[in-house]
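hey team, just a heads up i'm posting the complex here instead of the shared drive bc the drive is being weird again. everything in one block, sequence lines first with there labels, then the predicted structure for the whole assembly after. its two chains so it's a bit long, scroll down
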Amino acid sequence: MPSKEDILDLYFMDARCKLIDIAAFLDRVDRHDGNTDFRFDGFHKALEAMQNPGDKPRAQAVLEALSDHSEEPIPKATIQGAFGAPQLNTEN
Amino acid sequence: MPYIEPHAHMVSRTTADYEAMAIAGCEVICEPAFWAGFDRSSPQGFHDYYRQLTEYEPARAAKFGIKHYCWLCINPKEAEDAGFAREVMAIIPEFIDAPTVLGIGEIGLNKNTVSELAIFEEHVEIAKKYDLPILIHTPHLEDKLKGTKLILDALKNANVDPARVIIDHVEEHTAGLVLDAGFWAGMTLYPESKCTPARAIDMLENFGMENIWMNSACDWGISDPLAVPKCIQEMKKRQITRELVEKVVYDNPAQFLSQSKNFSIDG
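-- predicted structure starts here --
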């Protein structure tokens, strides 16, 4: 098994790059006109889950923050794709 | 290193991709029936698709020394119209005895609708009737967790043998649910919407190397037919032994797929 230092050697620069990309994405949204939607709310919720995952691994906490937690099948599909974050009216 | 690509949509890929996969060590490709990027307008369109899967693609793969197998179904994205889906499902028995058919798949859910769930359950009954293994697609992104739970409940109600079912596209929030229930799990190396090689290896570290495989699910979207060999390279960087790498990319898929009477590595 690789050590913590090995993992840093393998992934630090990649993670650093992605972290700065996230910061720049948030700045970019702030800088532009118009309104955000449920995706941006979900993104912030996921960031919070990453910082405070409780007893879960961070990746799992982030994925769950970006998941629909309703339990019953919906009557009919209105789209074929997915947005990446749950819409408020589908959350329990 | 020799590997099995257990989930690739080669009807959407070029012949150059077959060549590149062969050079990278691919010996077997398994192709689940899925969405072609647009909705087909008639059951006849699926008849042609099943012929492509059972006749044309095995011949195209063989030119590069690759064995090609397939799974049959109507995918959940086209299952919203249950009447149409049932017309397509009526065609499946015509192809089920083809020598390269492995089982029923990739069935599952897309938007977690009532109709999708009904058609999923009817596909499971076809698999039981013909004693075939099952390959399951779990929904994308925000729909995956809910869809995985609905699928697990439906499989429990159908009383299927979990050892003969693989639930694909697991991520960190669903892998434990699938494996703890005794099913096989598939990890998909797909840009943006599924998991990266680094995360797939994290899941192997966290959930173990039993009853799990990895695939590219390369299709008509932005995807990589060489995702599995690239992950093999990543596993080497992570100091995973050659024996364990071979287990994940060759032995495990061979073990699961060997439950299909048509699957053979040799010959």
